[in-house]
Amino acid sequence: MGYSNEYYAKAINIIKENRKKSLAQYNQLLDLTYSAVPRLSEIDARLSALGAKAMTSAMSGNQKAVEACKAESEKLQNEKQEIITGAGITSPKFKCKKCDDTGFVNNKKCDCVNKLAKKLVLQSLNEHMPLSTQNFNNFDLNYYPDKATESGISPKEHAEQIYNNLKNYANNFTINSDNIFLTGSVGLGKTHLCMSIINVVTEKGYGVIYGSAQNLFSLIEREHFSSGSGEKLDAMLNADLLVIDDLGTEFLSAFTASVFYNIINTRINNRLPTIINTNLSFKELEERYSARISSRIVGNYKFHALYGKDIRQIKAFDNMNNK
Asked: Which CATH architecture has domain 126-322?
């Protein structure tokens, strides 16, 4: 799947800027070396003179003189290279070894362009992700009631089990990790736990797409009915980890349901992990979408349900009392 010209153009511009910076750094070091070692300028002057002499000799048919010029030139080139290498200068340090940061190999886009275009698409999808404020370290289990329910376990103990499971999931994440279905009523920390997972997974270098169901499906719909490029849908289908937040809040249509099934089914078939965060139970999921969708999720996702009171309301009440 390709990306739009917009992302390819951005990627190529970034890669070419990298090349300019690398060449500028290399030339700066080279200039400093020339200033410190006058012999380099002497060699360049002699090489230029030898080139002119070799051309004149070739035109007059003096092959012996041509060969002598070549031999001296080779000797001077080796001396020059030894001086430059001895100064710690090798060659411009390009990020891509295949194309030397030109963006093209044999007039075709280099792999680095495709990789960067994909990264730019991911960034555009994740620009509103609140990673800096939500992580495992500041997830507070004290907001969950510690009184045991009929099941014999308190919401706090239950939340702690889920917290530990998801932390372990993040720490051991691979692209073959399990799918997660995280449910519970409003304000129980589901999004916070998702952000905590994403923080760890992105630190490992994996490509993650996160968004509310409403935003993700709207992006796909706008793209489908405008440009028709499908790059954002393709990114969601192929991301190392896809996190769909607040499933059930999106406007439901035949198109949305079809896209949702396509995402779920494709990622299951490709063994790519997905995390769904929702207020819906499995029963409500089936009622809102279809038995076909709920069946795929029930059979392929690990279920985690949080219980307790709305943490946001508790925090708001505490803040009012502390003023």
From this structure: 3-Layer(aba) Sandwich (3.40)
